[in-house]
């Protein structure tokens, strides 16, 4: 393959898939990843083990639901398409069945602001979307609703979705959802933990936006608590 920008993006998708498995976030062929490109979006193929996946296996999709390539696109292409179409702030969609997030999702639990880091996803909760069969338009509609104003959600009896401006940010968010889910599951052992009040979460979210908190690749010296020396 020649070294066009899309080849670089395809390689980055394959690398991100391998990182997802190496981090323990995912097992087997579950999960799928997409990233916007000029023609539409690139998405992982369906049911292909990540250690076998090559850049040319990544599928070019268009917003009308058609695709090009030797492989079939992920069965979840609908929610990748619908999220990328609806969210101009997002360029990458990441889906996996990570163990702790999925443990909460099988109970249809929304993650509350039991810890201030819940705010990094844009609100006071990480919602859990209602269950719908994998690969369906109903699942895509449920996911879009749960993602309103957020960069992550759980999928009832299924897994999680994390969004990012870049592939790296979507992976970071997926790991963060899993970390928070793990904390929440562990905290629930001692009973339902208290939640931070809405006005405190408003302050946290405002401060996170000002500081690009957890968004180091986006930082350009913006930090209202410390100034870089001239
Ligand atoms: P695909 O292999 O078709 O992407 O499906 C995996 C999955 O996680 C479905 O939700």
TrEMBL record:
Q: What is the main EC category here?
A: lyase
EC number(s) recorded for this UniProt protein: 4.1.2.17
One Pfam family matching this protein:
Aldolase_II
User: What's the domain of life for this entry?
Assistant: Bacteria
Limits of the Class II aldolase/adducin N-terminal domain: 11-185
- Gene Ontology MF terms: L-fuculose-phosphate aldolase activity; metal ion binding
One GO CC annotation, please? cytosol
Protein's GO biological process? pentose catabolic process
The region annotated as signal peptide is none
Question: Keywords for this entry?
Answer: Lyase, Metal-binding
Transmembrane parts of this sequence: none
Q: Write down the SMART domains for this protein, in alphabetical order.
A: Aldolase_II (SM01007)
* Protein's UniProt name: L-fuculose-phosphate aldolase
Q: From what organism does this protein derive?
A: Amaricoccus macauensis
